[in-house]
Amino acid sequence: MILILGGTTEGRLAVRVADGAGSPYWYSTRGDLQQIECKNGTHITGALDEAAMSAFCRDHDIRLLIDAAHPFATELHRTVASVAESLDLPVVRVERVYTDGSGEPGSDRTSLRWCDDYADAIRKMEADGITRLLALTGVQTIGKLRPYWSAHDCWFRILRRNESLEKAVGQGFPVERLVYYEEVDDASLIARLQPQAVLTKESGESGGFNEKVAAAQAAGIPVYVVRRPALPAGFETVTGEHGLRKAIERLAPGFFPLRSGFTTGACATAAAKAALLSLLGQPVGENVEVLFPDGEILSLPVTLRNPQGLAFQRASEPFQVGPRPDLKEPSAPPDQHTQALSDSATAVVIKDAGDDPDVTNGQEIVATVTFSDEPGVHFLQGEGVGRVTLPGLGLPIGGPAINRVPRRMMEQNLSALYAGGLDVTISVPGGRELACRTFNPKLGIVDGISIIGTSGIVRPFSNEAFVDAIRREIEVAVAVGTPMLVINSGAKSEAFLKARFPDLPPQAFVHYGNFIGETLKIAADLRVPQVTMGIMLGKAVKLAEGHLDTHSKSVVMNKAFLKEVAVSAGCTPATADAIDGLTLARELWHGLPSSDLNLFLSAILERCRTACASVYPASSLTILLLDEDGNVFP
Asked: Does residue 340 have a pLDDT over 70?
């Protein structure tokens, strides 16, 4: 069981992740003002001191504490640390994303006055002669700043709620000097009050820190910033959903029924970064941190491999090839540099797809990095990585099948280390054979697999990945100019449809699986002019009821609905009796009276067209109902 300490934006994030497991958990907030729905968790309120939290953890068999409270909730952080130590529990801290404090790009950092605490802020403001202040630190800090506002003009911005107002008034702060969040934006508030300075906390991106700093800097006034307090030792820090899920999977096994994994794109990025670090003479540990598309930084295990099989040697100076590499600051200190014995370096990441049935799970993803005279990052095709032969994927024809997001991930992570030109060769030993078990041949990708992934994370049996694959297939179909897109549920129905449309290229046929609605939305988005959909009766009866996702976990055959369709179509009572006796929808083909079958099937198809019309133009859609032998109705 897991206990989440929340009440913040990060608390909502933790709930979102925990709810995705379908397992029970507890979510605790000090007050009851946060409106939050815990689908699988129980929300409890009331402050927990050390004794109460310890008793709760023992009584409810808590195995993991997740601290998602405000960064300035120091008392709670200490309580969590003490309970964790006494009960030997791991703690995951869901931390906010913090910038360097410079506000908007190009802003002047000299306007920031960093303070260790509120007493330090008062001393610095007094020393600087600040007598007119806008405090954006919240109602909880009014008491801490009493020595300042008792002697100077000061405004506090607070939430417009009775609890906050009572707390401010109870500390003697004048009501006429209170302002509220929803009144105006930061810039307008500063323009109206004309303070000499702004006081805020290092509250991170979710606390609007950059916006506050930018508004003050635009007004030409200094910003006094109270640094966030240090977290207790022993907290494992994550900054987003993926990192939190991976931590829970490791520290609370079984909470998620299936483990998540990393995409080939994320693995290639980690390997390429490790290789570049080695090439630059910088140390490489057992894990490499990678910046993911959502801004999270996650670690992947890597292994260095020199192409010539030579060892890496210690050196007092960084290894150089030609002119000294244009290293981004900060560079590693001299005593940590290593000397490579070739002008290229190679690293390997073993693909861990979690519990997803991915054909590349357990495969080596290999990256070799070499300095280049041409600026930028250049991707080369290695063994087992496919070559693009058709348009539509947004990739250069003849180039390696490394998708756009993995390319951006590698470019972003590598350019943060080195500003010069690089050649990056990605290889997957055995990838040529693996590709036969993928859609690559249909997409015009030959000789190997694709390096893919839109988020860097593999979610077990990922709907997102399946829909993304559908989009890529339709993009290729559009690019090769197929006159019609033929969508179908799988290999069996596709074989029937290929026999019906033998002149269409293979790229015209796309599996929708259970994602009829998503497939038609993509076709509409890409302006596909004509779509023919082949559908078996089992999915058709679900679609006719309006279910654009026909998975059995989402919807089952509804006999009451089928009988209503039969009545509206003018079928005899014998059809309703036959429906009552059904086990599978395909039995409708032979179980209905022959005089009613055409009426019933026509009504089902009409309702299917109505359901699909919400996402794709009905005039451009043809629906073919297929039986088990490939016969088509109508």
From this structure: no
